[in-house]
Amino acid sequence: MGSYDGVMTAPQHPGPIDGSADPPYLAPYREILAAHGPSFEATGWKSRAMQVVRFDVLIDMVDLAGRVIVDAGSGQGALVDRLVERRVEYAAYVGLDAMPEMVEQSADRGLPNARFEVCDIAGEPDAFRRWSRHAGGPGADVILFSGSLNTMDDATAGAVLERAWAAAEEAVVFNFLSDRAPADLVAQDPAPARRFDTLGLIAWALDKTPRVRFRQDYLGGHDATLGMFKDA
User: Fold this and answer.
1) Could you tell me which residues come within 8 angstroms of residue 56 by beta carbon, excluding any fewer than 6 positions away?
2) pLDDT band at 22 (very low <50, low <70, confident <90, very high)
3) CATH homologous superfamily for the domain 27-229
């Protein structure tokens, strides 16, 4: 599963697409993967520049040095590239993606202290729990989502975030398309992505912890990032 930003239009196909039985939140990725193969285009990002901006906001939101990072919807593992460019000395990186082709390509890149696994973060209840120290895993210190919630409905995204929060040792940080964006952006249909109830997500986070950070001061307010932190 890549990072659909709600701007790129999924290509049209004249015939059936492999994976047509995929759940609705995965169907757009399957379609663009069928058109482009395991490429940058298949992640759903409009541009690398927008991708980097979102990555930088995530990186600035939480201290990742010495942490085990779980990237939920890792695509090509481009977040690792940015971490290296930013000289963030993370302890380990685990990339989870539902598209086997993307996982295979990412694994072949030889990225430092990184591993990749095929995982449907919404369809597999133990997607995060199995990485926790309580389950004998390395400890998912920080779980990150960059665009990977955007094709999910509220119930699906909410369940994923609940499981991530339960499994994370220290923090969960995620971005999403904000429904409090400027009116001209809200008026546009971002399908197959969707905008989320921004104030509802903030309230949900505050119900879990008072230690919450929020940003919507980048990309013209199109996007928002929310960080949730557990007590030390």
Assistant:
1) 82, 86
2) confident
3) Vaccinia Virus protein VP39 (3.40.50.150)
